[in-house]
Amino acid sequence: MIAAEPPNLPSGDSPDLILVPATASERIASIRLNSVAWKGPLDVETYIQRENHLLQQRLTRDGLTCWVLVDRREAEDSRTILSSCESYRKSALLARDGRVEKVSTHGVGSVYCRPEFRGKGYAKRMLEELSVKLETWGMEKEERRRSVFTVLFSDIGKKFYAQFGWRPFVSSHMSLKATGTGSGGMGVTRDLFAEDVQKCLCSEVVLDKLRDQMLVASRESGSAKIAILPNFDHFVWHWAREEFYAENLMPEREPPVVKGAGDDRARVYCAWNRNFGETPEDNVLYILRWVYDEPTSPAEEEVVVTAMAAILRRAQQEAHEWNMSKVEFWNPTPLLQKAVALVDPRVELVHREKDSISCLRWTGEEQGLGKDVEWWLNEKYTWC
Ligand SMILES: CC(C)(COP(=O)(O)OP(=O)(O)OC[C@H]1O[C@@H](n2cnc3c(N)ncnc32)[C@H](O)[C@@H]1OP(=O)(O)O)[C@@H](O)C(=O)NCCC(=O)NCCS
């Protein structure tokens, strides 16, 4: 399976190739293979433990499928893995014509082909088959029995996945350097622990508000709107990842407990996680999601922007405390960009061309939902 390099590899368009869910041992074999690309500072065995730990999280334990492209003539558990990836089922909202529905979607990740098998069309074949399979995979209990969209985050630019229907969406970010200096007179924020994030960013009230906003927007413009539901499970998954790294790489230190920051008066909140890379330069504190009410007057706007700036300062400090090089957040709104300008006017919006390109495959048109779709809350929490 993992060691085999058959003398005659099948061609990428061979009718003998099939895309199937991996058996338990094939899943481990595929993790071992892709460890070359993604284990980062962990050794292979610890990387496998990380993957098993993440699989047990609420977000993924029922909805994760590890897919392998194999030759149908080979026996289960001893098949040569030609290419592999994962899909994660998630809850989402779909709004169109004054109606909001809860739907399911899939995120695709860990697309991989071992170096010696590359360029033979295996990843392409896998994605061609996967794109179709995910339209109905795990959708038995759905009212529509089909997905209307799936997403992935490409690290290899905008073209490769587009050929299978995953179109690139806006993929921008801003970063601020980590800093050990104080709040700079920018107001006092409250540290958020896990339960605070649940209350301030994931409560029924917050999710209902999102639903209402999507409803109103769907009455105002014709195109469908989707959002991956920013439920607490997402945050817990990201934190399971950061805590796993922290425990393994910094065993002498208590795992990180500050999971975000907020300002109760301005009602602005964010949740973050720490991403540990191979070098301190690769360590990034990502803001996973922001929650605030759209201001209705210039005075309200000032309150919100000032609070965001103070929260960003707090994030910079937290990044510094954890030996991260920077704080980063995806697709900042104009208000958040104003707040960044208060913290550091030199910072610019970056449009990514290669890494973490948010891509969405829309199949709603065939279901009468129109040609276009707007992706709401295209923030880092959606990444898997
Ligand atoms: C990307 C990857 C899965 C492609 O696997 P593969 O089986 O060699 O791909 P295929 O033979 O089916 O397709 C080759 C195509 O992929 C494109 N491709 C491969 N690597 C690429 C890269 N880093 N950037 C852009 N395109 C790339 C090639 O340009 C080629 O396109 P062409 O047919 O138009 O010439 C493989 O190179 C890999 O595992 N890379 C490391 C992990 C990774 O980056 N995964 C993607 C995460 S989003």
Automatic annotation (TrEMBL):
Pfam families: Acetyltransf_7, GNAT_LYC1-like. CDD domains: NAT_SF. Residues 106-167 form the N-acetyltransferase domain. Residues 173-384 form the LYC1 C-terminal domain. InterPro entries: Acyl_CoA_acyltransferase (IPR016181), GNAT_dom (IPR000182), GNAT_LYC1-like (IPR055100), LAT (IPR053013). GO terms for molecular function: acyltransferase activity, transferring groups other than amino-acyl groups. This is N-acetyltransferase domain-containing protein.
